[in-house]
Design brief:
It contains four helices and eight strands. It is α/β, with parallel strands linked by helices.
Length: 173
């Protein structure tokens, strides 16, 4: 099935994507989409990661509940993440993981201190943390992005699409 046929089927079918006649009539092709954001005439935020044959996410704007961006540390990694929550059971997550040498050095220096404190307090200083990827669930759609700047660009694109209620296609290479 071609990508255009799949998107047409999604637009005409039931579910959280619902019916969108403009999308079905336009016969969208993504072969010529450039990096960055392009305006479109339909009420979807579409994100292409890599080439259209690799990954395309199309989210109807009126199903987006929230667009969130945050940064957190996991062991020696810094994770920068954008999460788009939708009505229903889907979360779309774009994230970038980078080594953080400063965090690694600090963890190495404080490892023995942490063990000593926890042995004296019964672990009271331990705080809850997401253990990547143990905290992910099957209803998440996840994309690993290489460049942390592109995480910011994805956030701005999705947020602006929702605020302005104007669809767009955003390509990340």
């Amino acid at each position: 099935m071609k990508l255009t046929q799949l998107l047409t089927a999604m637009a005409v079918g039931a579910g959280s994507f619902g019916t969108l006649p403009a999308l079905a009539q336009e016969r969208i092709t993504y072969a010529d989409v450039q990096d960055g954001e392009q305006s479109v005439n339909y009420k979807f935020w579409v994100c292409i990661v890599g080439c259209p044959k690799q990954a395309v996410t199309a989210i109807r704007l009126d199903t987006i509940v929230s667009v969130n961006k945050h940064t957190y540390s996991v062991d020696n990694m810094v994770v920068k993440e954008v999460t788009i929550d939708t009505r229903g059971n889907n979360s779309i997550r774009f994230y970038c993981m980078n080594n953080n040498e400063a965090v690694r050095k600090m963890n190495d220096r404080t490892k023995n201190t942490r063990k000593l404190i926890d042995s004296k307090t019964g672990g009271l200083t331990t705080k809850p943390a997401k253990m990547f990827p143990d905290g992910t669930y099957s209803h998440n759609i996840e994309y690993l992005i290489d460049d942390p700047k592109k995480i910011d660009d994805i956030y701005e694109s999705a947020l602006n699409a929702v605020i302005k209620n104007k669809g767009c296609t955003f390509k990340v290479n």
